[in-house]
Design brief:
By secondary structure, the protein is α/β, with parallel strands linked by helices. It contains 35 helices and 28 strands. The strands form 7 sheets. It has an 11-stranded mixed beta sheet with strand order 6-5-7-8-1-9-16-15-10-11-13, with helices on both faces.
Length: about 1000
Amino acid sequence: MTHDAQEDQDHLVAVVGMAGRFPGAPDVERFWENLLAARESVTVFPDRADPAHPEFIPAYGALDGVGDFDAAYFGLSAHDALITDPQQRLLLECAHEALERAGHGGVDRPVTGVYVGTGGNGYAEAVRARIDEMPFLDEWRLRQATAPDFAATRIAYHLDLTGPAMTVQSACSTSLVAVHLAVQALLNGECDLAVAGGATVVPHLPALRYTPGSIVAADGHCRAFDADSDGTVSASAVGVVVLRPLADALADGDHVHAVIRGSAVNNDGRHKAGFTAPSVVGQAEVVRTAHEIAGIDPHEVGYVEAHGTGTALGDPIEVAALTRAFGSGEGREAPCLIGSVKTNIGHTDAAAGVTGFIKTVLSVEHGVVPATLHYRRPNPAVDFATSSFEVSGTTRAWPTDGPRIAGVNALGVGGTNAHVVLEQAPPREESVPSSRPQLLIVSGRTPAAAAAVADRLADHLAAHPGTHLGDTAWTLQDGRTHHAHRRFVVASGTRDAVTALRSRAADPAASSALSDAELVFMYPGQGGQHTGMSAELYDGEPVFRRSLDEVADAVAGSLGVDLREVLYPRTDAERAAAAERLATIEVGQPAVFAVQYATTRLLDSWGLRPSAVTGHSLGAYAAACAAGVFAPADAARLVAERGRLLGTVPAGAMAAVRLSETDVLGLLPADITVGAVNGPGQCTVTGPAASVARFAQELNDRGLEARVLRIATAGHSPLVDPVTRRFAEAVEALPRERPTLPVLSDTTGAWADEEAVRTSQYWVRHMREPVRFGEALDTLFGASDRVLVDIGPGRTLATLTRQHAAYDSKQAVVHLAPHPAEEASETTVLLAGVGEIWARGAHPDFAALQGDGPRRRIALPTYPFERRHHLVPPPVRFTPAAAAPAPSAAAPTEAVAPTEAVVPTGVPAPERPPVLQAVLTAFGQALGCPDIDPRDGLFDLGGDSLTATKLAAWAGSTFHVTVSASDVLRFQTPSAFTTLIEERGAGAPVQTKENPAS
C-alpha cells in the first residue's frame, strides 16, 4: 500500500506533532525510552494502605509537578492560575509544546481546531472549600476555571486558534474520540490543522480504597491479558497530538510521524449486560468500520494497542471483539501483536486513548513494539488460540515488507468505542545539504527564558550533530512564536552553531527587547569600494544578481565598461586593471550605487523595507532611488554622469580630521574647505590634492589625527562649481517623483521637503555644500525605536554613528557588509545583520530568506516554561508519610499552602494612605499577587475585564462610590484607581479579610 497517488492521500491524515506528560516521563521522548526499557512507572504509597485489606498494595501512576505552571507566559494572574484546574493548565502547556514540535508554533499557522477532553479530579471541590478565603471568587468564576466545558476553548483562546474548539467527554475513550473528531474536521475542511488529546490529572491523591472483585488491581500492577491479572491501576497523564491532511503536510515539509488511514466511533447501545459493561458486538463493529474506512484487510495489521485494562471482564471481551473483527489467524504469515501501555503507567482515564495512540505512532515510526509488562502466561478466559493475536511480552523489532500498519482501541465506560488505523509514513528524501550559512533565531518571554532556549537548542544540536541546519533554521524562523527577548547566531554547521549558541546564552547583553522597529537605511558614499565586493551575494542570491545586472546594463553605454567585469574580475591581471578603474570616480561611484541598489532590492525581497532613508554624499542617490524619487536606471545613469563630471574637475582629495568644525575652520588654508561634518570632532576637508595632503601631514606633525581618503576628487568644494550647471541639466532631463518615504537630507541634517527633493537645485546644492551627516544623526537619535542600517559597502556609517557623541548603546546600529580588510563571509555578515534587525523587532519574510529550495520542519526543543507552584490545598489537609517509589516514578506533588510575603526583620513596611493600601490589598487578592506596586498595571499582572468588574463592585461596596468596570480598565494602576476613588468622595474603607489561599 502506498501514498504515491494524490487520490490515495485525500482521506489520509498525518500525525505531525506530539507532546505529553506521563508517569515517570516529562515528555514524549522519555516516555518512549521508558517503554523500550520495559520500565514500569507506577508509584506505591504505603501510607494509603487499607487496614481492612492488607493484601491491597496502593499504587498510582503519578505525575511530577502537577501544580506547577507558567501563568505569566499565558497572561494569567497568579489568582487565575491558582483556581484553574491543573489538568486544563497542563493541557494548555502540552498543546503549545505539540504545536512547536510540529513546527507550527508561530502566529501564521493554518486554521487550527482543538478537540480535547478531561477527567474528573475533584479540584473544583478543593477550590470551593476555600471560596470564603477568596473574596473576588464567585461560583461562575470557579466554574469557568474548573469545568471541563472550557478545556478546548481555553486552549483556543490562549494560543489564538481559530478553528472549531470542542470539549469531548466519553470517559475512558475521550481522547481517542477527540482524535477521531479532529480527523473528521480536517477531512471535512472545517480546519487545516488540529490539536487533539486529553488529560486526567489528579492533583491531590485521594484515599485508595479497595473492594475485592472490583476493577482495581490488588497487587499494584496492571497485568493485561495475563493469567494473574485482577484489575487495573489508576494514573494521571496528558497527551496531545497535532494532525494535518497528509497531502498538505508533505507539501509543506512537515515531519510525518505516522498516517491515520481511518477511524471510527460508535456506542454499544443495549447490546451488553449493563451500562458499565463492555460489548463484543459494539467493539467488533467499530473495528470493522475503521478497517473499511481505511481500505485495509485485517491481515495487513501487525499490531493492535488494546484498551487492555487487565480486568476480569474487559480483556476477554476486548479480544473476543477483535477476533470477530479480524477473523481467525488462518492465512496470516505472522500473528498480529497485541499490547497495552496501561501495564507501564496505569489507566489514565480520559488520557488513555491518546496515550496508547502516541505509543503506537512511535512503534509504527521506529519499527519497534514495546513489551507489555507482567505478561507471563495467557489469561485462560481469553481465547488466543482461535484468534490472530499474540501478546507482545517482550520488546521486539517490527519487520515488514510493506508499510507498518497498526490499530488503536479505546473503550469508554458507557459504551462509546473508538478505533484508529495507523500506517507508517511514506518515505521522504533527506534534505539536501546546504553550504549556505544559516540564521538561527531563538527568543523568550524573559531574558532567562531566551538564554534557556539557546541552551536547549545547543544541547540538542550537540546530541544530534547530523541535524540539518537549514531545516533547523526554517523551523525556528517559521515554526516558533517570536517573543520579546531575542537572540540569534549565524552558523555553517552544527558544531559552529553549538559554540555560538552557548556563547550567546552566556552573554546577558545578547538579549534584545522587542520594539516596533522603524528601519532607517543609511547609504555611505564613495571610499569603501573594492574589487570583489558582494561577490558572494552576486553568486548566491538571484535577486541581488538581477538587480546589479540591471544597473550594469543601464550604465554600460555611458561608462564604456561592464561594471561586472570591474567588480568581479576572474584573473590576477584582470583584478589589477579592475582595481585601477574602480579607484576612479567615474567607475567607482556607479559601482557603489550598483551594490547599494542590489542590496536594497535583496532586503526588500526578504520583507525588510525602510521607514526612512538617508545617504552620505554619493549614498544620497541610492537613498533617493529607494524612496522612489528616481527610477533605478535613471538613478544609475545620473550617478554615472555625476562621476564623469567630477572626473573633469582639477585633481582633488579629501581627508578625515579628528577635530570639530570650529577648530578645523581656524586651521584651514585658503584653498581647502570643510567637505563634511560627521559629528562632533569628526570632519572631512576637501580641496586640491596637493593642498589636502600637505594639510593632513601638518596636522599629523602636530599630533592631530588626519587621514587622506581614497577619493580622487574634491567633492563638496568650490572645485565642483564649473560642472554644476551641466549636472543640473542632467537632473532636469530625468523624471523625478514625490518620495514614497521620508528622506533625511545629509546637506541640512533635516527631513527633506517632498517637493524640494525633486528639484535640480536640491541636488546641485547637495553636490556643492558640505555633508552634515552629524546633524542627520542628531535627527535620527531622536527616536530610540529606530534601527539604523548601514547598507554598505563596508561599515563606514555604522562606525560614524557609534562614534557620534550623542550615540547611546541602546540605539540599534546594524551593518550588513564586512570591512574591505576583514576576512569574513559576506553572506554571514549580511545574515547577522538581518538577525540583529529581527532581534530589534522587525519581521523578515523568512520564507523568502530561505529561497526556493525545499524546506522542512523538524522536531526541536520546545519553550522552557518558567513555572511556579499554583495549587489550592485539598479540602482536608493530609500529610503523607514517605512514599516508596518504583523505579523512575515519583509521587504527586502535595499542595503547599500559599504563604504571605515575608518582610525582612528590621525593615519597616511602607506607610501608605488608607485608600491606597486598601486598593493594593484588593488588587493582590483579585490577582493572587502578594506584593503589588502602586504603578503596576491590571493587564500586566494578568487581570482581565472580569477582574475589573470584581474590583469595581468591591470599590463601590467598600467606599460607597459609583465605579464601573470601564473605570477600572481606564485607571489600571492601583495609584490611578485610588485617585479616582478619592476624587469621587471615598469614605474610610471597610476592613477586608486577607486572602491566605491566593
